[in-house]
Amino acid sequence: MDQDFYKTLEAPTEEVLFKDKNSKFFGYAYPVTTEDEIKDIIDTIKKQHYNARHWCYAWQLGTETIHYRANDDGEPNNSAGMPIYGQIQSFEITNVLIIVVRYFGGIKLGVPGLINAYRTTAQIALEEAQIIEKTIDAVYKINFEYKDINNVMRIIKEKNLNIISQKMEMNCEIIFSIRKSEAEISEAAFVPYYEIILKRIS
Question: Are 98 and 89 in contact, with CB atoms under 8 Å apart?
């Protein structure tokens, strides 16, 4: 059976700090769902740390189709973004953004030192995080006449379907979600009622 849950962060973490040879590395971890949200958070952190030398980050979005990006922001290739992303993979989480802000302390760390510093800061940030499991859900739209409302609501209650929105008029519409592994069983419950139109929308 396909896995129908994923791990992510419950909330943004508090700022963490890692120091190496006078360089300071501030780490942040955020739960995110869109690239626009990621851009806004990065812009906010850049304003907050406008005197910093580098704002390196990595993010991953998606549950079944994964998108990710790792950014070195001027550090040597693969010395910052990928070590940060490696911690996202290590903790097996998604829908997450990790930013590490560096203030240069005057002493070069070399590539191995940078890799260690960015990886360690990301790890500390994630160790501070509350990691939770969420289900991967299927979303359905159901259209029916008002006279069928009792049958529909009974099935929704029996199958523990999560109502996202509803319009109750002469022609009714409900959008609901259900854990992916239970979707087919829930679909089958509506089959005897041929006047009810059920459509999966995601």
Answer: no
Q: DSSP readout, 72-121?
A: -TTSSTTSSHHHHHHHHHHTT--SEEEEEEEE--SS--HHHHHHHHHHHH
Residue ranges covered by each domain of the chain: 5-134, 136-200
**pLDDT score recorded for residue 1:** 39
d(CA 76, CA 80): 8
Which H or E run includes 164?
strand 162-167
CATH (residue range 136-200): 3.30.70.240
Nearest to 92 by CA among 132, 65, 38, 136: 132
pLDDT tens digits for 78-135?
Answer: 999 999 999 999 999 999 999 999 999 888 888 999 999 999 999 999 999 999 988 8
Residues 6 or more apart whose Cβ sits within 8 Å of residue 62: 94, 95
Residue 185: what are its φ and ψ, rounded to 5°?
Answer: -65, -40
> Do the beta carbons of residue 200 and residue 138 sit within 8 Å?
yes
Amino acid at the residue 30: Y
Cα dist from 36 to 11, 32, 57, 59, 127, whole Å: 18, 9, 15, 12, 26
81, 68 Cβ separation under 8 angstroms? no
- For 5-134, CATH gives 3.30.230.30
